[in-house]
Amino acid sequence: MSTVFFDIDTQIDFLFPAGALYVPGAERLLPALEQLNRYAAAHAIPVISTMDAHSEDDPEFAQWPAHCVVGAIGQQKPAATLLDKRVVISTAPGEYSIDGAQQILLEKQHLDLFTNPNLPGVLERLNAGRSVVYGVVTEYCVRCAVMGLLRQGKPVELVTDAIQSLDKEAARRMLEELTAGGGRLTTVAEVCSG
Q1: Which runs of E-coded beta strand occur in 53-165?
Q2: What's the total number of domains in the chain?
Q3: What would the DSSP string read from start to end of 108-132?
Q4: pLDDT of the chain along its 194 residues, tens only?
Q5: Phi and psi of 89, rounded to 5°?
Q6: Of 18, 133, 155, 159, which cross-links 6 as Cys (Cβ 3.0–4.6 Å)?
Q7: Are strands 2-8 and 128-136 parallel, antiparallel or unpaired?
Q8: What is the three-class DSSP state of 52?
Q9: Where are the beta strands (DSSP E) in the chain?
Q10: What angle (nearest 5°) sits at the alpha carbon of residue 145, between those of residues 115 and 48?
């Protein structure tokens, strides 16, 4: 079983004040996000970077302001979070080659990364075991990632200094739920010292 890093929704629309669905304070995560992704690349650890990929009239926009529209600048990831060898996996079911990829850009149209039907096959090909999770937003998409990974019965670690929430109380409840479910809290320094 191998370690896989999960870089959740670290896109311009969420990370920066000019973004369509800015998470206050998220821009301060950029050095940590870059450090984690670069550490993974240097240690041959695959990074699955989830990316919202919405159409202009996406049904999700009834609940949230329009954000991460495919082709818009806000849908992109900051250059500092991108690795050299990457592949995009859309939500269209299919066989996608991940051979040699350091970073898998996993597109999604919903909060939960497991709504991408290609994810189970990717995890199987990576022989995914331990999962290290970070990104935004703690109580939404990050929560979906960690709880979905915990349901698979694999070790899950959440990097607490590389996440950002909108609601501190909801985030606190999520951290309690994670640890009660067997997940572990960690830090960038701890992850990158191994």
Answers
A1: 86-89, 103-108, 128-136, 156-164
A2: 1
A3: ESSS-GGGSTTHHHHHHHTTEEEEE
A4: 799 999 999 999 999 999 999 999 999 999 999 999 999 999 999 999 999 999 999 999 999 999 999 999 999 999 999 999 999 999 999 999 999 999 999 999 999 999 999 999 999 999 999 999 999 999 999 999 999 999 999 899 999 999 999 999 999 999 999 999 999 999 999 999 97
A5: -120, 115
A6: 133
A7: parallel
A8: strand
A9: 2-8, 47-52, 86-89, 103-108, 128-136, 156-164, 184-186
A10: 85
**CA terminus-to-terminus distance, the chain:** 17
For helices 168-180 and 143-151, give the axis angle rounded to 10 degrees: 10
Q: For residue 103, what are the β-bridge partners? A: 47, 86
Are the beta carbons of 3 and 42 closer than 8 angstroms? no
Query: What tokens does 87 get?
Result: 């592949």
Distance of alpha carbon 14 from its chain centroid, rounded?
12
**Domain carrying residue 167:** 2-191
CATH number of the domain that residue 103 is part of: 3.40.50.850
Sign (positive or negative) of CA dihedral 111, 14, 170, 191: positive
- Look up the pTM and report it: 0.97
